[in-house]
Amino acid sequence: MHPNFKYREDFSLRHNNSNQEDINAMLKTIGVNSLATLIDQTVPSKIRLERELRLPNPKTEFEFLRDFKQIMGQNKIFKSHIGLGYYDTITPTVVLRNILENPAWYTAYTPYQAEIAQGRLEMLLNYQTLIIDLTGMELANASLLDEGTAAAEAMTMLFGQKSSDKGDAFFISSLCLPQTIDLLKTRAEPIGIEIIVGDHHSVDVTDTKFFGMLLQYPAANGEVFDYKNLVDAAKENDVQVVVAADLLALTLLTPPGEWGADVVVGCSQRFGVPMGFGGPHAAFFATKEKYKRSIPGRIIGVSVDSEGNRALRMALQTREQHIRREKATSNICTAQVLLSIMAAAYAIYHGPEGLKNIAGKIYGLTELLAAGLKKLGFT
User: Fold this and answer.
1) How far is it, in rounded angstroms, from Cα 370 to Cα 367?
2) Which residues pair with 362 in a beta bridge?
3) What is the torsion angle, in degrees rounded to the nearest 10, for the CA atoms of residue 368, residue 176, residue 263 and residue 304?
4) Three-class secondary structure of residue 309 per DSSP
5) Per-residue pLDDT reduced to its tens digit, 292-301
6) Is the peptide bond before 218 cis (omega within 30 degrees of 0)?
7) Domains in the chain, please, with CATH?
8) From the centroid of its chain, how far is CA 198?
9) Of 131, 232, 220, nearest to 172 (Cα)?
10) Does residue 252 contact residue 360 with C-beta atoms inside 8 Å?
């Protein structure tokens, strides 16, 4: 036997791609005799490359993975202290293995048929309860896409509820997360809302042009403000208040619901959900009972079955687009179910005291880092 040392497995054959026979049949169907002719007829010459692509020689799968690992090995791994709504977290192994890595939780199915989705609904109810407890609000939905989307939904909900003597301006504290500010500007423009970004210390809530405002808690720079007096003044002037809050920080801070917030939004990523290069993560949206028919997203409610036993179901569905279509209170009906279930499981796993201890440890380590940086001359 004479071994062929030049043999290289053709990796492309491992893929279900087109063959020449298929290509010829498709070209015949559209009345073209070659791919080159098709390109000549469809791609403008100004944007075409007039030479062959300069590509390296093909590699086998093994060679590609080996070389790719060598390239990856050149990366330097740093700890990110940027924050701004995204924070590294530890996912408990039991949550990782039984939820995130368990394909049984992965589905595009919406639990419209409640009788076969009680387990999923139970975890979503846990998530809603977690959000209600930490925000101090009366009602929460089963998650939204991200914090910026949730803030935009809060703004549009309050815009639809504003009294006739209020204007179309929405104030945003300049210490809100930059990505949230940008998203709100994008959402506001087509529906005629004027966005005003500024210092929350100097905003004039007596100005009738304002129908609502957004505050960050803690602020994007990490500072925790006492918003009580501002919120009281806003309420006296019929200005509705949205608070974008850090869910883990709320285990230590006074809940926004206790100092007058109308809507509390945020992201539950810190509750055991990996950063994932910026997403996906489950947002939360909590508000007052009076907004229950205007709140976006899905709500899981407790009911009874035909035999009188406790059962869970999707509640107040007449708000949603699968029933009301263009008359729905919101067209954001997407929930990050898998990730909200992870966040709920994380909270159950650690319990109230465990969550407080985690938040306290983070606060303490932040204080140590700040003291160390100050000692090194960074102020």
Assistant:
1) 5
2) none
3) -60
4) coil
5) 999 998 899 9
6) yes
7) 11-72 (no CATH), 93-355 (3.40.640.10)
8) 25
9) 220
10) yes
